[in-house]
Prior knowledge:
The chain is of the alpha+beta class. Helix content is about 45%, strand content about 10%. It has 3 domains: about 5-110, no CATH class; about 115-255 and about 460-480, no CATH class; about 275-430, no CATH class. It is built from 17 helices and 12 strands. The strands form 3 sheets. It has a 5-stranded antiparallel beta sheet with strand order 1-2-4-5-3, with helices on both faces. Strands 6-7-9-10-8 form a 5-stranded antiparallel beta sheet, sandwiched between helices. A hairpin with a 5-residue loop joins strand 9 and strand 10 (about 245-250). Helix 5 crosses helix 8 (about 225-235). It starts with 6 loop residues before the first helix and ends in a 7-residue tail after the last helix. The mean pLDDT is about 85.
Amino acid sequence: MNLPGSVDLFEESLKRLLHNCSDLVVKHANDGLTLIYFCNLIDSNLVNHQLLGSLQQIRLAPFSMEGLAQLIPVGQTELTCEMEPAMTLLLRGWTIVYKVGYSDAILVNTAKQPNRTPSIAEIETNVIGPQIGFTESLETNLGIVRSYIAHENLCNESLEIGELTRTQVQLLYLKDVAEEQTVNTLRQRIADLKIDGVIGSSVLVQLIEDNSMSIFPQLILTERPDRVSFSLLEGKVALLVNGSNFAIVGPSTFLDFFKSPEDHYLSWNIAMFIRGLRFFAIFISILMTPAYVAALTFHYETIPPSLLVPLAQSRSKVPFPPLFESLFLEVTIELLREAGARLPTKVGQTMGIVGGIVIGQAAVQAGFTSNILIMLVALAALSSFTTPIYLMGISIRFVRFPMIIAAGIWGGIGIVFTICLVLIHLIRQTSLGHPYMHPIFPPRWRDMMDTVFRLPFPSLSARSTFTRTPNKQRFDRDQAKQKKDIDE
């Protein structure tokens, strides 16, 4: 539908389409110019001083809307003769400049988005390296990423999701580094979404990942710009969603969820030790409690003789079988974790510490559990928190429950059977069409240099084959090994 030919008809059409919104402002300026905007979406200082001031000073002879748009010294300007794009931008905080007798209207970007200044990343914390995290502003997040990668090959495409929310999304990738098929796959999945609205990247990632029924995340949600920058340099693709302080990075492997940007800021031997500690923590978190249940239920012969006496004394007052005892403690730990996360920060920390001590001591004295199991469950819970990505930590804690039940019913055979089911499930998963268990399956020994291990940077001259990047080399390995003094 074209724009009406008079201000009254234009105002009437807008109010009818917007259901008589009370915050719609129609302001008449000189020379027959009319400004239309939402008072709670625009920067009032920008509209009242700069835009109106410039319109009052501009004199055109002969007058044309194209010439006026070029002389307006305010942000972005667009010309339109249709009602739909004018409505869309008006709802995003733009101002419509309209003049009677002209078929075109000028759209001026005067939006003032509610946002906050970049602050420290609160969830993915590190000791060494940049501390800045993403905000809820799409423009701010895009600017942060461009400050890390100041190159013309950093491409960003603007997409829109949701028929009602019209959420703005930025698709980021490095040209000639990211595989074109991966970019097209992600672009197509977003284009195929038929949904009324998407609020935040956490919702979007569930709509575009390969298997939404899996408990394991296939795309990384991160609030760290340096992790996004490292991923883009590897040939991966990132999504920034307006209103969300988390970016989506893909394709991702299972091992990527246990890598931290801090691994590249530390020396290779220290980083490899810490990364190995994280992998070891996975096994502790998953197997510690099920092994206790299986040993006390079916496999007493696996317990060392020196532990039998203190173990028997510890369980002498416990009337419940090991399966019920372990499930009770695991559920208690999860309740404490969830309560601590929902309470205010200072209260939540106190709740976690005091609640754990009081409930644990009371459970032992009441005969609900033994001291040994409390120590094992606490160690397993502590190990699950070493995972850098929050969603993967939840998945690991979830896997522990069916494994405990299987250990209580079938013993060691139940543990092995559950592990096999989890491994089969992981091997079958993909991330944007890429194998999820790369480089373990299919085995790629060279790609293990910066996944399972963390070797020195001269050994990491080639990019991983996982992203199928056309630009396979980061730098010349031979030149990187050369060490020359200044006088040479």
